[in-house]
Amino acid sequence: MTDRVRIASYGDNDGVTVDEMEGGEGLFVVTMNKPAEFNVLTGGLMPAIAEAFDGITALRDPDPNNDLVRAVILRAEGKAFTVGLDIGKLNEYLEGGLTSAGDPFRAMWECPFPIIGAVDGPAVTGGFEIALCCDVLLASRRAVFMDNHAKYGVHPGRRLSQRLAEICGVNNAKLATMAAYPIDAELAFNWGLVQRVFADTEELDRESLEIARMMSRNHPVMVKRYKDLIERGALVTYKEGIALEEASEATFYDQLTDLTATLEDGAEKFQTMVRWTAERE
Question: What pTM did the predictor assign?
């Protein structure tokens, strides 16, 4: 990911950086940049992650048709995605608390743009929870996910117990959590935790960008609507989710800046899809 421009950094010594990819495609890259510390979630790094995502959310245009941001990639430098909180300092964390403004989980949940997590190494406990805040997870073969709350004797608090069961199934979630079972990249793929697995860091970075570009080429209002609908639908019954979709459809077309232009663009893309189908063997 060399063709990018630094637009912001947060925390001590650029602990979290935000870059925009060149090319005007609306692709932003958030990097946890504490490789020597394995990106441990310190009292400094967590607010820095929150600031990064709040800063990206603040770029939202009043008109969702005109949003500068189309997709966000979350990645990390070094051997680990993030190994989570230092449990030896948990008392400091509990006593100091985590304000809403400095909460990276809240900031990622509130981000209206799709977040692609590129996991290239261990994502452990709080790091696992950070990964689960992403909308799409991609992994290299170096990736491993592990929940150590039961091992450490601490309680999860960032939706992990529910999110993991929803994604991977109840019994898989029980294995992962109660045994603190390491989930390597292949197993994560088989469980549906990650959507693609790549050979190495270079391929992971390249394909993360390609998937982000695929998102950026789609209609910005519908991409954001899909994210919102799927997330909200996961919290309610199937019947209630259908009602959410119907309510969203009822207001969608009125929100488009130019319905005619949208339909013309869609018709052109449809013909491209027809040609693609014809060329397949």
Answer: 0.94
